[in-house]
Each structure stands twice: as C-alpha cells, then as structure tokens.
C-alpha cells in the first residue's frame, strides 16, 4: 500500500509579509473578510475548512492572535492546536527545519508567532503546508490586515487617504503598515526619533512602489508634521516584547511622540485612531484619544477574527 504523499511544497502559499500581495489581491481578501463577517454576524458558520487542522506555534505570549485564530478555525469548521515551544522538542534543541517537516505530516497549516523573522522563513522553506506569520520582530502582517479591514469599513475606500504612524519606527507594526498602506494606495507619514527609523530596506522598497503608484511614503522626526491632515492615526507601544530592559530609556526618548489631543488637532476632524493593543495609556497614547470618539481600537481588535478567517480560507481551502 502506497502512503499518501504530503502536499508538494510548490503548490502551497505562505503568508509571511503583506508585500507578497498585489493591490487587487489585497482588496479581494478584504472583501472576503467583510463577507465572512456578515455571515458571522448573521449566525451563519459554513464549514469551509471542515477537517482542516491549524497548528499554532507560539514563542511569544498572545491574546488576540491566539484567540482569533483558534475561534476563526472553529467557526470555519476546522480545529486549531496550540503548540508552545516549551512543551515541544524545540525547547530541547530540535531544529526548525525538522520540526517544520514533522508538523507538515500532521496539520494542514502552521501559524507561528516568534521573534526571529529568519526562523519563520526557515519554517516556510521546509514546511509542506502553508505557513502564516502571526508575528515576528520584523513584521506583523495579520494585525495590519485587520487594520486595513477596519480602515476599509470606516472610510469606504483607500484612495486619497493619509495614514500617520507616530512612535517607534523600527518595529514590526510600522514595517507591516508601510507595506499595507502603500499596497492599498494610501499616503503614509512616519514620525519617530532619529535613532528609531524604520528598516531601511523595507522603507526604500516600498517608497519605490509608492512612487510608481502615485502615493507618498514619508519619514521625518516631527510628529506634528506627520499627523497634519491625517485620516488615520496609528501608534504602538514604545517598548516591544524582548526589549523590556530598554523601557526606562525609551520612555524619555519617546515622550514627545505621545498621541494626545494636542497632537491630533492637526489631523482631519473625522480621523480614526488605531492601536494593535495592548496599550499603555499615558505613555504612547493618552486616555482621551484611545477611549475617545475617534478611537476604533476594539473594532480593529474584532477584525483580527474576520480578516484571519478570510486569510485561512484562502490558504487552507485546497
């Protein structure tokens, strides 16, 4: 009896960064997320992924990523398995390459939340099933997919919009927002302290794309200039996971970059505020902004579920 072969590597599609999508593909994914959200709100849960299993490998703690992926798989008719590095042979030195090949024999897809982006690229190379980037130190594409869905719902379109990001430019949220904003067709302005600029390779690559698309991607150190005329204002924590020992120093450096009412006076009157959460009120954002009328952070958090359901359906429905 010949054993069933694992799905060939060349037939699968991974989701490691937003830059792999075209604008049309991105819009199609967001339209599908809206359709699935409407089904969910109506109490309709079609088993699109019946019999499918998603392995979820976590090296970093999580609330929204874990719950949204697990609930999303259940609502799509499949299942999700939580895998902690400390509970696996990875914790005893098994290689990522070996782990990827073994898990490919058990599950239909892998979602990985880790530190090193090189690690997730290794998984994608060796896994015979789709690999989804649930977060690395370099990119957070699943969160920004939900951010784009929220903007799409709130504003109706991306054309003519300006997104302003204020805070730590050299973090995964900023990098994925750069890719997502440019691909969606929005202008983006980034303000951060000079020593915390975005990754140069990512910024330059997407600035070239923006130029071809007729949109703007701008960096400077002045938060007021970045926010001026913005339709969307975004920030993130000043100290990302793994950099906790820098927290005290970062608070001093980033203090002028707090998103507050005074700073947001330069944004458009109908601007929306986004934050991937968890947030530190009184640090990167004031309570008046994150808990105020312009904030859509909880719609944004909910949209993790709907955006990821569309992503899961597109990758695992084979």
Strand proportion, as a percent range, falls in: 5-15%
Low-pLDDT regions: 1-10
Give the oligomeric state: single chain
Note the gap between the termini.
Answer: 25 Å
Q: How much helix, percentage-wise, in residues? A: 40-55%
Q: What is the residue-averaged pLDDT?
A: 94
Name the structural class. alpha/beta
Strand order of the largest sheet: 7-6-5-8-9
Total helices: the number is: 12
Order of SSEs, N→C?
Answer: HEHEHEHEHEHEHEHEHHEHH
Gross morphology is: globular
Cα Rg: 20 Å
Sketch the major β-sheet: 5 strands, parallel
The number of strands is 9
What does this structure look like?
Helix 1 (23-41) packs across helix 12 (297-316), helix 2 (64-75) crosses helix 12 and helix 5 crosses helix 6 (172-184). Mean pLDDT is 94; it is low at 1-10. 46% of the residues are buried. This protein is α/β, with parallel strands linked by helices. It is 42% helix and 14% strand.
Keywords:
single chain, 318 residues, alpha/beta, five-stranded parallel sheet, 12 helices, 42% helix, 14% strand, globular
Quick recap:
By secondary structure, the chain is α/β, with parallel strands linked by helices. It is about 40% helix and about 15% strand.
Question: Topology of this protein?
Answer:
Blueprint: H1 23-41, E1 53-58, H2 64-75, E2 79-84, H3 96-104, E3 109-113, H4 117-126, E4 131-135, H5 141-155, E5 162-166, H6 172-184, E6 187-191, H7 200-213, E7 217-220, H8 223-227, E8 232-235, H9 247-254, H10 261-264, E9 272-275, H11 287-290, H12 297-316
Parallel strand pairs: 1-2, 1-3, 3-4, 5-6, 5-8, 6-7, 8-9
């Amino acid at each position: 009896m010949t054993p069933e072969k694992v799905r060939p590597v060349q037939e699968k599609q991974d989701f490691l960064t937003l830059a792999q999508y075209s604008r049309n593909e991105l819009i199609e994914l967001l339209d599908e997320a809206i359709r699935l959200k409407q089904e969910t709100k109506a109490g309709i849960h079609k088993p699109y992924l019946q019999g499918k299993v998603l392995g979820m490998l976590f090296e970093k703690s999580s609330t929204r990523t874990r719950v949204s992926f697990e609930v999303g798989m259940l609502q799509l008719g499949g299942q999700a398995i939580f895998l902690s590095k400390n509970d696996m042979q990875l914790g005893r030195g098994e290689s990522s390459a070996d782990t990827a090949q073994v898990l490919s024999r058990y599950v239909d897809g892998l979602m990985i939340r880790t530190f090193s982006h090189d690690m997730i690229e290794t998984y994608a190379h060796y896994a015979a099933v789709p690999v989804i980037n649930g977060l690395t130190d370099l990119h957070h594409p699943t969160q920004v997919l939900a951010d784009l869905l929220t903007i799409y719902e709130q504003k109706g379109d991306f054309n003519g919009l300006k997104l302003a990001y204020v805070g730590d430019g050299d973090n995964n949220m900023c990098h994925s927002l750069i890719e997502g904003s440019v691909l969606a067709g929005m202008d983006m302005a980034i303000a951060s302290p000079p020593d915390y600029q975005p990754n140069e390779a990512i910024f330059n690559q997407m600035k070239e794309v923006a130029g071809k698309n007729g949109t703007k991607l701008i960096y400077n150190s002045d938060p007021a200039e970045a926010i001026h005329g913005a339709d969307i204002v975004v920030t993130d924590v000043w100290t990302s996971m793994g950099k906790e020992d820098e927290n005290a120093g970062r608070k001093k450096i980033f203090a002028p970059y707090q998103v507050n009412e005074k700073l947001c006076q330069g944004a458009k009157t109908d601007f929306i505020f986004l934050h991937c959460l968890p947030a530190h009120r009184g640090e990167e954002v004031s309570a008046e902004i994150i808990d105020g009328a312009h904030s859509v952070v909880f719609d944004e958090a909910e949209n993790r579920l709907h955006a990821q359901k569309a992503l899961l359906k597109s990758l695992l429905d084979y």
